[in-house]
Amino acid sequence: MTKIVTLGVTSDNLNSPVIQDYLKKDNVIGVPDIFLSEWDNQIPFQIWYGSRYSAKSYTKAIQYLLLCSGEQYFRGIFMRYAKVAVRNSQYQLFKDVCEMKPILKDSFRFYDSRLEIVHLETGNK
Hints:
By secondary structure, the chain is α+β, with helices and mostly antiparallel strands. The protein contains 5 helices and 4 strands. The strands form 2 sheets. The chain has a two-stranded parallel sheet with strand order 1-2. It has a two-stranded antiparallel sheet with strand order 3-4. Helix 3 crosses helix 4.
């Protein structure tokens, strides 16, 4: 599998031609630079702060998908108060992120009836 690279982006550099060229590559995914400092943090619980448009959920979805595609055993749980809210927001977000990059789209199978996402190569969920 091709290595997926995360690229820290900010409102200042997002429109840079160099950054835009990188983001066009299938194996490069842009995430808000402010969250990269916590990307590899191994503590079991994290609270990320930011405004409604800070891309916290988007960034966490990418992080979970990449953890799923890793060699180590991974089972992630993404919860909301009501199941309907999960289907229409978080679960759909995982699907949207995979649609955005073909390298991710071809690597996962989505089971809509049970809201489960499985990495085809590793079996991680």
